[in-house]
Amino acid sequence: MEYGEVCETEWGDELGKNISTIEELKAHVKLSPREEKQLRKVIERHPMSISRYYLSLIDWTDPDDPIRRMAVPRSEELVLAGSYDTSGELENTKLPGLQHKYAQTALILATNRCAMYCRHCFRKRMVGITEDEVIHRFEMAVSYIREHEEINNVLITGGDPFILSSETIGRMLEMLSDIEHLDFIRFGTRVPVTFPDRIIHDDGLLDLLRLYSDDERRIYVVTQFNHPREITPQSISAVDSLIRSEVIVNNQAVLLRGVNDDPETMAELQNRLVAIGVNPYYVFQCRPVKRVKHHFQVPLYRGYEIIEAAKKRLNGHSKRFKYIMSHKTGKIEIVGIIGDEIYLKYHQAKNPRNIGKFFKRRLNKTAGWLDELDRI
């Protein structure tokens, strides 16, 4: 069967054909004995899983291909600089699988699995490894949300909730649908990017989304396109299917070294997203995650230069995103740089009194995170 002919009942079987071993990877790229030894060490700690679709986007003749960087393990993942919990998720966990950091938002970790294990994942500590942080009794999360009327939206994420069965997703939506103080429900998923057939060939999922997304309470899909080459006929079709199912699609890109860390690529990405009906939402500063920070994080000063240069190439709709650092204290917008000072603003905050707070730090050219900036 050629790729793209997957029947709607077979998408789970297709995921079973993901590239997940060094032996399977060696069919596509030549590895020296040293490289092979290093990559085996990497995937012993952080598994590899690449959908055949996403594999088809890689230019194997280019060792620095941006798609390859996001999908294929590298020896740089052996560098342990950073933290596995850069945003304080543990301290905001109210029960296994449910986080409540910001007053208005409940976050549910629905699974520890994804259609592809991105090498830059900020939940590298759990994805593909452990189910300890995943929700096991969804009704407990629903009870918590029902009891906290300040919560007006729920983000279902993981892992990737769209690799769950449509029946499971339907039960989640059914249980949440009668909570009157919820204004909308979000799914955080990279499936439109890494495995679009899950959406294109499953009318059951689309019917569910259409059923629960109406004129009084919308379903949002927050996805993550990071490079223009991820925008393909298949991913466009997946996005279009979601939009036709009354779903609003937003994009949260991550600024990644070697992937999109130049103004031309970033501008092309945002312009093409708007063209296919996806709303630019955030561009995240790459978090200082262990086995990620060393080779993916761009310094803040350089990140700001890239974003501002990209915005000069964008129209009003494609420059609506904010350049954000998702810190343990809140979502911090990188507002500007004057001389050796960087100006910041709390777009969202764990402490409500900090929301909207404007502040500055002393800038240095190696800092990639708030904690590396000196107070003035």
TrEMBL record:
User: Cross-referenced InterPro entries, in alphabetical order?
Assistant: Aldolase_TIM, Lys_aminomutase/Glu_NH3_mut, rSAM, rSAM_sf
First and last residue of the signal peptide:
none
Highest taxon of the source?
A: Archaea
Q: Which UniProt keywords apply?
A: 4Fe-4S, Iron, Iron-sulfur, Metal-binding, Pyridoxal phosphate, S-adenosyl-L-methionine
Domain named Radical SAM core is located at 100-318
Q: What are the binding positions for [4Fe-4S] cluster in this chain?
A: 114, 118, 121
Q: Name one GO molecular function term.
A: metal ion binding
One Pfam family name is Radical_SAM
**What does the record give as cofactor?**
pyridoxal 5'-phosphate
Put simply, this protein is called: Radical SAM protein
Q: Which organism is it from?
A: Candidatus Syntropharchaeum butanivorans
